[in-house]
Amino acid sequence: MNGDLVRYICRRLLQMIPTLLGVILVTFILFNVVGGSPATQVLGKSAGVRDLDDYDRERGFDRPLFWGKWASTRLFHSGQWGKGATGLWQGEGMEWIAGKGGMLLKVESLAVVPLAFDPPPDTAYQWEIRGRLSPGATAELVGLEGDRVIGRQSISAGSGRVRMDFRVPAEGRALRFEVRVGGGTLEMEMPVLRRALRHPWDSQLYYYLAQLARLDFGESVSTHQKVSRLLLDGLGPSLALAIPIFLISLTVSVALALVCAYTRDRWLDQVIVVTAVALMSVNYLVWIVLGQYGPAFRWGWFPFWGFESWRNLVLPIWIGVLSGLGTHVRFYRTVMLDEIHRDYVRTAFAKGMSEGQVLFGHVLKNAAVPIITNAVMAIPFLYTGNLLLESFFGIPGLGGISVNAINSSDFDVIRAVVLIGAVLYVTANLVADLCYAWVDPRVRLG
Questions:
Q1: Dihedral, CA atoms, 41, 47, 48, 51, nearest 10 degrees?
Q2: In terms of Cα–Cα distance, which of 375, 370, 376, 378 is closest to 337?
Q3: Predicted confidence band at 2 (pLDDT cuts at 50, 70, 90)?
């Protein structure tokens, strides 16, 4: 490997870094920002608050998106406020009243703030209580661990606001928070409870990047397996299906394109073109249904479900080849005919070379660049396999895994498939450039 090639590869690898960072950021935005709460989408709207909170905490969704000192928590949420939550509140002298910004809780003596579940031990939080005190009234927020006071803050008569920091004890004893009012009333807005973070960058993005640095893609919700293990298990069946389809399709389509170039404008060329157009016109699902009904069901030549032996792959491989053959033949035929009208071809014929020598010695070599482009760009898609083929033939590959993950909203699996596919696509671009220089001396790796 010469120095120029090494420098070129290093430079291209450095250029890939911003692209990969962009892919990571887009993936993060798609799965963490767009679409609302992943916990609600996966577990359903009827899931318990504790289950939703556990899901968020296990997957890093209980943090701010990019940065911040505080994170929201379901320990106290909007469902615990308003007339519908009356049964959750305990105390004396309480009444719900309408305010300009929503419902207010008018407290004359005592209100015990309800918590959705026992908070996790050794965790720091902050309460923010806002309201309006009547003239002469006093109010305070008191935190209790059993009978022991762990925090006490007076609510200012001027601003009607108080913030109280507290930490849940390591032994996790039950906590209680009371709003105590004397000498009047407090018209209290909905309290806000925040969880303290270790540092301002302890965010969802930081958690996601740390995962990727460890090559940890999370855990599947539906199978409770590590996503990396799940993908490795599905990689073999996917490649066993996709690689033969890729190699057979490439070999047959290039060979037929050469036949078209050799017999151009004659009956064999026209037959191949018409057949290619007919193959392009048949929907992918039609091939699958016809293959399963005829060769598999009616005639019993092939099994139509499972992944027990090589016989299970024969039918889906041929369906995969036939479904894409028409498109590839037409593309490669166009490439060959474009080359065959070049000046160097006329020069070769003038020197007395046979048509076979010109086609295989010159045309095929000079047509290698677009062929490589088309072939190499198909390589990343070998990773995910063939979604429909794997689903309809019961092949436990990455395509079937991806479909099941989409149907079950398994975000960690979908995100990993998208990200690894993007990385392979960027890598394939580098491989294509190196292949250009290998097959065409005119290409310089500068």
A1: -60
A2: 370
A3: low
Tens of pLDDT, residues 239-293: 888 889 989 999 999 889 888 888 887 888 889 989 988 888 888 788 888 888 8
Q: Please give the Cα distance from 62 to 51 (Å, whole number).
A: 13
Instruction: Please write the tens of the pLDDT for every residue from 374-402.
Output: 887 777 777 666 778 888 888 888 888 88
Contact (CB, 8 A) for 441 and 369: no
Weakest-pLDDT range from 45-54, 135-144, 246-255, 338-347: 338-347
Q: Is 183 left (phi over 0), alpha (psi -120 to 50) or beta?
A: left
**pTM exceeding 0.85:** no
CATH topology assigned to domain 78-196: Jelly Rolls (2.60.120)
Q: Which CATH number does the domain 227-439 belong to among 3.40.1190.20, 1.10.3720.10, 3.30.390.10, 3.60.10.10?
A: 1.10.3720.10
Q: Structure tokens of 285?
A: 């699902």
289-316 pLDDT tens trace: 888 888 888 888 888 788 888 888 899 9
Domains 78-196 and 227-439 share a fold: no
Given this model, what pLDDT does residue 446 score?
A: 57
Q: Give the pLDDT mean for 30-59.
A: 82
Mean pLDDT is lowest, of 205-209, 334-338, 345-349, for 345-349
Domain segments of the chain: what residues? 78-196, 227-439
d(CA 361, CA 340): 12
Triad 375, 385, 403: Cα angle to 5°: 140
